[in-house]
Design brief:
Shape: elongated
Strand content: under 5%
Distance between the termini: 42 Å
Number of helices: 4
Number of strands: 0
Radius of gyration: 15 Å
Number of domains: 1
Largest sheet: none
Structural class: mainly alpha
């Protein structure tokens, strides 16, 4: 769940993850405390989001916005 916190931000990441994965927030809580295993599809989605964030950050560093 460290990756979810990193990708989705600090406070409220559990609710954002629940909304993105279309599950109840109680389900995310069960994943967080280890009562239920985190589905592979959720892990894949989080890894993809993290990779996309890194790609966008690298792209922004390479080509800063041109100001008028």
């Amino acid at each position: 769940m460290r990756l979810a916190r990193q990708v989705l931000g600090g406070d409220g990441w559990e609710g954002r993850l629940a909304a993105l994965m279309i599950v109840d927030s109680a389900t995310v809580w069960r994943w967080k405390v280890g009562r239920s295993p985190i589905p592979g599809a959720v892990l894949v989605a989080l890894r993809c989001m993290a990779r996309e964030r890194q790609r966008l950050a690298a792209e922004a560093k390479r080509s800063p916005l041109k100001r008028p």
